[in-house]
Amino acid sequence: MKKLLGLIVCMLLTVSAMCARDRVSRDVNLLPTEARELIKNHFAEASISYLKVDKNLFRVEGYDVRLTDGTELDFNSKGQWTEIEAEKNAVPASLIPDVIKKYMKQNYNGQRVKKIKHNRRGYELKLSNGLEVEFDNMGNFLRLDD
Questions:
Q1: What does the DSSP 8-state code read for residue 27?
Q2: What is the side-by-side order of every strand in the sheet holding 48-56?
Q3: What is the DSSP letter of 114?
Q4: Hey, which residues does 144 pair with through a beta bridge?
Q5: CB-CB neighbours of 41 under 10 Å
Q6: What average pLDDT does the segment 111-116 reach?
Q7: Domain 20-85, CATH 3.40.1160.10 — does that match?
């Protein structure tokens, strides 16, 4: 009986490990529609270098995309962006909420946004001068890190 139980546990672990494998591809059709549209509308000059589908057991956790211009984009399972990092360029201004753009123009005019993260708590921007600026989901300034 113990051998049978051990065999079943081993089989389940093997199956779950096989299902949790990430998939790497260049096929843009693996992305949800919202993610494809964002890339098409805001990064039309670059193409996809590769994309990785992050899987956990039987469901997709998110997508990591790297473009030919070096930009890295992270999307959640629904295709909504969670992080954009543009080391060579700046994050497109059209992806930054208007309230935050206004604050950045008033306080950090001339600084490029190199990275932006969005989660349930708010936004975090990393600027070309190395400063990190945090905002809540309404666009209200929270804090500054250097």
A1: -
A2: 23-25, 48-56, 59-67, 72-76, 81-85, 113-119, 122-127, 132-136, 141-145
A3: E
A4: 133
A5: 11
A6: 97
A7: no
Q: What is the pLDDT of residues 17-59, one digit of tens each?
A: 444 456 788 888 999 999 999 999 999 999 999 999 998 877 8
Residue found by looking up tokens 């949800």 in the block: 32
Which tokens belong to 70?
Answer: 């070096």
Closest Cα to residue 63, out of 36, 102, 91?
Answer: 36
DSSP string, 111-125: --EEEEEEETTEEEE
Per-residue three-class SS string for 92-112 = CHHHCCHHHHHHHHHHCCCCC
Selected from 3.40.1420.30, 3.90.226.10, 3.40.50.970, 3.40.50.300, the CATH number assigned to the domain covering 90-146 reads 3.40.1420.30
For 102, list phi and psi in degrees, rounded to 5.
-65, -45
Please tell me the total number of residues recorded for the chain in this structure. 146
Helix (H) or strand (E) holding 89: none
Q: How many helices (H) and strands (E) does the chain have?
A: 3, 9
Do the first three CATH levels of 20-85 and 90-146 match, i.e. the same topology? Answer: yes
- Structural tokens at position 10: 């081993």
